[in-house]
């Protein structure tokens, strides 16, 4: 089942890269990096901005979010601006290709906060007026009432957390909106940003059946825009829902039922003109999420705000290796750190070549197009996809079964294989580690031979 891969998408380095020119009118070139070459990888990045506050915690949620004790929006705004400028200076990127405001509930932020952060971005890097700027929206009357102001602030795409069109399910999930309010918010967002509204919907909810899910999805597709993100509800330790299930108060659908729901959704969305371009994301009229595509293609991204994650080369410090960076979780502590040193980075880890390739593999295989040869070569110029994955018996079985495809285009899952990504990835990761290890041993042996020849005893 695709349970864990779908769950990972919800946390996605929540998280395609765009290059703009006057001649192209701001249109994307899907393979711009493949043509441009690897130096471009360190000069551009996407930006994720985390707003950590919510009015209340949903029963299933264990994300990094907090219920504010007081209104400290001005302080949060100031610190988001400062950390944005600090990390942009540290990365020395010349172009921010997309911005995503996530949370928490970023639709609680004042529109002036969004405008201020975007202004800070523009002071340090080029941000095209056509670059995708997404804001996650909680579909309450308050969220809906601010959509127009968010557009004025610079937002041009909305991601709306509908989750369910069933009153009872929304109550179990701890959501603070009704189905009617959700549909009204979607309608208003479509009016303001036609073709650029994404809807999040969740399946595998307590007591949910495949039949009720199919009916609900059909109802949603009558009103939604051109992008749907589909997530399976996953129980997380420490959440209210986990305790309810553990105590027998709530029952969850069996795994075979949720598997049927996923396949049903894929078929239904396809029938309505949506193409599945990633494990949990579907678009029609080419309305893909360019920001999230940058994650799946292994490109640089900068994470700003409490608990945000980033992956970039700190060129401002003379860095040449990509780092995985995590910002301090607790907003109050993060604010103090930003005030003291300009950023709240709590952890930074240099990624080894193997770790970088593992991320490129895991994220790239989430896409229906998979990983093409030129893209893989940017990160692994000495070992191509055929060399890494073409000789393993385990991989050959996946290829012969039709779950995996390795050809002149690259490496990808078939339609059936994408639903089984969890069971395919371990074999790919084992083979990648084995081939990289063998390559290092050969290089080490060759170095030793060269030294002996040049320094005979």
Task: Please characterize this protein's 3D structure.
By secondary structure, the protein is an alpha/beta fold. It has helices spanning 3-10, 32-36, 73-91, 111-124, 141-145, 147-153, 167-173, 179-192, 210-221, 240-246, 255-271, 290-296, 331-341, 353-364, 373-379, 385-389, 393-401, 415-418, 421-454, and strands at 44-51, 95-103, 132-137, 157-163, 197-203, 227-232, 275-278, 281-283, 301-304, 309-312, 323-327, 345-350, 371-372, 404-406, 410-413. The strands form three sheets. Strands 7-8-6-5-4-3-2-1-9 form a nine-stranded mixed sheet, sandwiched between helices. Strands 10-11-12 form a three-stranded antiparallel sheet, with no helix packed on it. A hairpin with a 3-residue loop joins β14 (404-406) and β15.
Number of discrete helical segments: 19
Beta fraction: 15-25%
**What integer is the average pLDDT?**
86
Largest sheet: 9 strands, mixed
Structure classification? alpha/beta
Helix content: 40-55%
The total of beta strands comes to 15
Strand order of the largest sheet: 7-8-6-5-4-3-2-1-9
- The backbone outline, from C-alpha atoms, is globular
How far apart are the first and last residues' alpha carbons, in Å? Answer: 60 Å
| pLDDT < 50 stretches | 1-37, 451-457
């Amino acid at each position: 089942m695709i349970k864990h891969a779908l769950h990972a998408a919800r946390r996605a380095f929540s998280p395609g890269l765009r290059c703009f020119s006057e001649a192209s009118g701001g249109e994307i070139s899907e393979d711009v990096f493949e043509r441009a070459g690897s130096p471009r990888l360190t000069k551009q990045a996407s930006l994720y901005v985390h707003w950590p506050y919510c009015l209340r915690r949903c029963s299933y949620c264990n994300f990094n979010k907090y219920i504010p004790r007081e209104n400290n929006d001005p302080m949060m705004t100031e610190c988001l601006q400062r950390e944005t400028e600090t990390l942009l200076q540290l990365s020395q990127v010349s172009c921010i290709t997309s911005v995503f405001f996530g949370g928490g509930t970023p639709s609680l932020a004042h529109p002036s906060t969004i405008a201020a952060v975007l202004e800070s971005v523009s002071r340090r890097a080029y941000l095209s007026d056509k670059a995708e700027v997404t804001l996650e929206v909680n579909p309450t009357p308050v969220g809906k009432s601010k959509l127009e102001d968010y557009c004025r602030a610079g937002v041009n795409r909305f991601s709306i957390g509908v989750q369910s069109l069933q009153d009872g399910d929304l109550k179990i999930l701890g959501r603070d909106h009704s189905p009617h309010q959700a549909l009204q918010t979607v309608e208003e967002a479509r009016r303001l940003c036609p073709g650029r509204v994404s809807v999040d919907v969740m399946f595998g909810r307590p007591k949910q059946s495949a039949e009720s899910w199919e009916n609900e999805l059909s109802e949603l597709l009558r009103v939604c825009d051109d992008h749907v993100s589909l997530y399976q509800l996953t129980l997380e330790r420490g959440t209210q829902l986990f305790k309810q299930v553990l105590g027998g108060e709530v029952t969850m659908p069996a795994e075979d039922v949720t598997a049927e729901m996923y396949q049903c959704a894929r078929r239904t969305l396809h029938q309505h003109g949506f193409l599945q371009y990633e494990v949990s994301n579907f678009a029609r009229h080419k309305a893909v999420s360019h920001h999230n595509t940058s994650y799946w293609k292994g490109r640089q991204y900068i994470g700003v705000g409490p608990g945000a994650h980033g992956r970039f080369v700190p060129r401002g410090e003379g860095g040449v290796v990509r780092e995985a960076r995590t910002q301090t979780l607790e907003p109050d502590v993060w604010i103090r750190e930003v005030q003291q040193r300009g950023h709240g980075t709590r952890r930074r880890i240099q990624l080894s070549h193997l770790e970088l390739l593992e991320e490129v593999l895991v994220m790239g295989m989430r896409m229906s197009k998979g990983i093409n040869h030129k893209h893989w070569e940017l990160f692994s110029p000495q070992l191509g996809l055929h060399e890494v994955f073409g000789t393993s018996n385990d991989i050959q079985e996946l290829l012969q079964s039709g779950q995996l495809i390795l050809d002149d285009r690259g490496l990808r899952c078939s339609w059936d294989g994408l639903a089984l990504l969890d069971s395919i990835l371990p074999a790919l990761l084992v083979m990648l580690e084995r081939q990289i290890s063998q390559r290092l041993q050969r290089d080490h042996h060759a170095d030793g031979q060269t030294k002996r020849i040049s320094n005979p005893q």
